[in-house]
Amino acid sequence: MIKQRILIFGSSGMLGQRTIQYYMKKNVELLCSGVEESFFIDGVDYVQCDITKRDEVKKVINSFFPDVIVNCAAFTNVDGCESQREIAWKVNVSAVNYMCEMCRVYDSHLVHISTDYVFDGNSGPYHETDRTNPLGYYGRSKLAAENTIKIAGIYHTILRTNVLYGVVTQGRPDFVRWLIETNRAGQKARIVTDQVNNPNFIDDLVQAIAKSVEFKKTGLYHVGGKEFLDRYEFSMRIADFFGLDKSLIEPIVTSELKQAAKRPLKSGLITLKAESELGYKPTKIEDTFLQMKNELGL
After folding, report:
1. Rounded to whole angstroms, what are the CA distances from 294 to 78, 105, 288?
2. How crowded is residue 190: how many other Cβ atoms within 10 Å of its Cβ?
3. For 95-128, what is each residue's pLDDT tens digit?
4. With 90 as the cut, is the pLDDT of residue 298 above it?
5. Per DSSP, what are the bridge partners of residue 145?
6. Tens of pLDDT along 162-172?
7. Cis peptide before 125 (omega within 30 of 0)
8. What is the pLDDT of residues 59-75, one digit of tens each?
9. Is the dihedral of CA 120, 124, 125, 127 positive or negative?
10. 27 in helix, strand or coil?
11. Which SS3 state, helix, strand or coil, does residue 280 take?
């Protein structure tokens, strides 16, 4: 039986790491790619690639001729996107266009990760059919990437997510681990009460990626957690489970942060389509915390 060939861009990020760990256990040919010179996960083939350079993207894909490309790469610094628009566009849009060009050559299935920031947050949570209206450059660049894929004439799946958290062993910590480490260090954390989402456990998003590939599903799907809650409520759930000092968690509103980019406030993603068509099953919040505790020793 011919093994499916899967190429993962953005392999060093939170989602990339977990996607690789998932597929390492499967009977597939796997190639990982990122901007780093070397990779920290043993046992996988890795190639360095600057996805903002068309020739490098072409070279990697031509050398591997993948059946599936999973794009976990993105410039996700929301405030940074406002001041570094050229870089944000190159990473979030131009690179996706290069991938689309090569998907047409090899008839590859592109699985692309997008965001709830394509919405304005005035009337969430959102269905896939709701009107987009991004507030900042990050959201605009991610929406442009979605549109690039849709008109490319390729086999594609777009998975929108929000507030991604979970088991991360390398790189910057996710929100849960950041809050735990900050709290246990005796430092205060200022957490907003007016941003509502349904936080998405990384392993759940990996399952959505895997199901999209397995069932060869195309189109747009919203992927998120089981519960809609504001960031402060989420922090309180983390504090309860991990026994944190709640007096160090200070409730504030978004405007107090004086951030460069506006955030969608009443957001979140309705996952009914993914549940019915992909068999997507989001994990209960406390169960995700238990998994993180067991794997990371938190």
Report:
1. 31, 44, 10
2. 11
3. 999 999 999 999 999 999 999 999 999 999 999 9
4. no
5. none
6. 999 999 888 88
7. yes
8. 999 999 999 999 999 99
9. negative
10. coil
11. coil
CA distances in angstroms from 198 to 168, 233, 255, listed in the order given = 19, 11, 21
Dihedral sign, CA of 166, 198, 183, 10? positive
> Could you say which DSSP state residue 53 is in?
S
* DSSP secondary structure of 117-182: GGS-SSS-SB-TTSPP--SSHHHHHHHHHHHHHHTTTSEEEEEEE-SEE----SSS--HHHHHHHH
Q: Which residue has the tokens 């861009």?
A: 9
Q: What type of residue is 88? A: A
Q: Rounded to an integer, what distance in angstroms lies between the CA atom of residue 82 and that of residue 95?
A: 19
Cα-only R_g, the chain: 19
Q: Position 163: which residue type?
A: V
List, in sequence order, the alpha helices (H) in the chain. 14-23, 54-64, 78-83, 85-89, 95-106, 137-150, 175-184, 202-214, 231-242, 272-278, 285-296
pTM of the model: 0.97
Strand order across the beta sheet in which 155-161 lies: 45-48, 28-34, 4-9, 68-71, 109-115, 155-161, 219-222
CA dihedral (62, 68, 72, 74) in degrees, to 10, reads 50
Of 37, 23, 29, nearest in space to 72 by CA? 23
Unique residue bearing structure tokens 């944000």? 88
What residues form DSSP beta bridges with 34?
Answer: 48
Q: Answer yes or no: are the C-beta atoms of 123 and 72 closer than 8 Å.
A: no
Q: What percent of the chain has pLDDT over 90?
A: 94
